[in-house]
Write a structure and sequence with these properties.
The complex is a heterodimer of chains A (about 300) and B (about 180). Chain A is an alpha+beta fold and about 300 residues long. Helices cover about 15% and strands about 40% of the residues of chain A. Chain B is an alpha+beta fold and about 180 residues long. The chains are: A alpha+beta (about 300), B alpha+beta (about 180). The interface between A and B is large, with 56 and 54 residues.
Chain lengths: ~300, ~180
């Protein structure tokens, strides 16, 4: 009996020593985490959705919205200035004596949804908009060739008139789809199908629904400087209006984006520049202008405060 | 006699368990950077860092996506990716290194152990050898690695006119990784 137990014990001992030796031979070829990381890296590349961001430097190209949005809980304070027509001569210091402006606030409720308000001196117009990002251009796991956003804006004409216009007759609306593609780091293009509905038009022969197609683009010439252009072709238009054509330069200085431009438009909201442009480039009806934007981060992301 | 046999076999058996290699890993490591200057607060956090650690060889690796760094200011985040890190060209940063004094860490015993880490840090497509001190904390089998390193922006070929002015030349980087 004792003998039997002894045999069992010695078998147990031998097997455990054997197991130990086995484990040691295993441990001499340890797992190579460096090689493992290379594999993880390839896996990450395959699974990663690489968002193509910053097709434009700012949320506006010159007058028009770009496909970019203000970030979540960020507030953009935007001052847009347009001087008088360059061809108004030295008496008006080539337009610098007259200035029109729009002050606006844009807020990011989320990275995909923005709201904004603005007030223009032109026609004392108050405007508000909502902007929603529908598609985000990306490569990698999700290959999306385009970015797309929708903008809806309402404008309220504020000038005193006689006879007094009703509230409804002062309103106009604009629907825009922004379709953009960043072709490479330097070149981005955008198409902007637009409908502007004006409740009260100046002449009975004018249409209330005005259709147009905007085209815009930017060429980055350095990390901080980009050249922009924007043109709205109107399929039907108010009598006497022309198509809006603008060129600009974006200069990025830390927290600011500074936009300088030349345009034949006066208004800085959709009713203003898409349908109510009267200047003609050929006649020298060109305005010099600028937009200054300062971004404020209003709220700290709570997920960033806690460490895990 | 059989008692001795029994204890010996138990001893060897237990040894064989302890000598086995274990890889600790996480996909939610926390790396935060800070390039504050008196004029500007520049802080960002990436809490999707992949990290693995071997208790046997002492190998320690990290990998993260540059676009995973979240700033409070979205514009700042955009400039970070577009102008400084060029993250569409260099989407990842990684570290491959070793804990040189891994034998000093007892993974079976709770406590905080000082570690020395040496290895290659790759950011913005540039690799550089670095050496740093850190700690490994063992708490009921949960391993947490922490370290604080200063990264000179210019060492990694990252340029921009605000570096040294609005943006600190040295980025203070804090690493906190809790392994699963």
């Amino acid at each position: 009996m004792i003998n039997k137990k002894n045999i069992i014990c010695s078998i147990l001992l031998l097997s455990s020593i054997f197991y130990k030796l086995n484990a040691q031979t295993d441990s001499t070829k340890t797992i190579d985490l460096f090689a493992d990381l290379e594999m993880e890296s390839k896996k990450t590349d395959a699974n990663n959705i690489n968002k193509i961001t910053a097709a434009f430097k700012s949320t506006r190209i010159v007058n028009s919205h770009s496909v970019e949005l203000v970030g979540k809980h960020n507030l953009d304070f935007r001052i847009s200035h347009r001087f008088g027509f360059l061809n108004s001569g030295s008496y008006n210091l080539f337009g610098l004596d007259n200035a029109t402006m729009r002050m606006g606030l844009d807020y990011g409720l989320s990275n995909k949804f923005n709201i904004g308000i603005g007030r223009s001196t032109v026609d004392k117009e108050l405007d508000g908009f909502i902007k929603y990002k529908i598609l985000q251009q990306s490569t990698g796991k999700v290959n999306m060739p385009l970015s797309m956003a929708y903008v809806f804006s309402i404008m309220h004409y504020g000038l005193k008139t006689s006879p007094e216009l009703s509230f409804n007759n002062r309103l106009s609306y604009a629907h825009q789809i922004l379709i953009a593609r960043k072709f490479n780091d330097n070149i981005s293009l955008q198409l902007i199908p637009t409908i502007v509905h004006i409740n009260a038009v100046p002449f009975v022969t004018d249409d209330n629904n005005l259709y147009s197609l905007g085209t815009a683009g930017r060429v980055k010439i350095s990390k901080r400087i980009a050249i922009n252009g924007e043109y709205f072709f109107q399929f039907n238009q108010l009598s006497g209006s022309t198509n809006s054509l603008s060129f600009g330069v974006d200069i990025e200085t830390g927290g600011h984006v500074f936009q300088l431009h030349c345009t034949n438009s006066t208004g800085m909201n959709e009713r203003g520049f898409v349908t109510n442009t009267t200047g003609k480039w050929g006649n020298g009806d060109i305005r010099f202008g600028f937009n200054i934007v300062r971004t404020f981060a209003l709220k700290k992301e709570s997920s960033q405060k806690k460490l895990w | 006699m059989k008692k001795i046999f029994f204890t010996l076999s138990l001893f060897f058996f237990s040894l064989s368990i302890y000598s086995q290699e274990k890889v600790y890993s996480t996909k939610n490591g926390n790396i935060s950077i800070n390039a504050n200057t008196p004029v500007e607060t520049i802080e960002a956090t990436n809490n999707q860092t992949l990290s693995k650690l071997s208790n046997k060889s002492g190998q320690l690796v990290f990998m993260l996506l540059i676009k995973g760094f979240k700033f409070n200011n979205a514009l700042m985040q955009e400039h970070f990716n577009e102008n400084y890190m060029e993250s569409s060209k260099f989407p990842k940063a990684d570290f491959k290194g070793n804990i040189t004094n891994i034998s000093a860490v007892n993974f079976a015993k709770d406590g905080t152990y000082n570690i020395i880490v040496e290895g290659d840090l790759t950011i913005h497509g540039v690799s550089k050898k670095i050496k740093s001190n850190g700690t490994l904390t063992v708490n009921k089998g949960v391993i947490t690695a922490t370290s604080n390193i200063k990264i000179k922006v210019k060492d990694f070929g990252i340029a921009g006119k605000y570096i040294g002015d609005k943006i600190a030349e040295e980025v203070n980087t804090t690493i906190i990784c809790k392994y699963d």
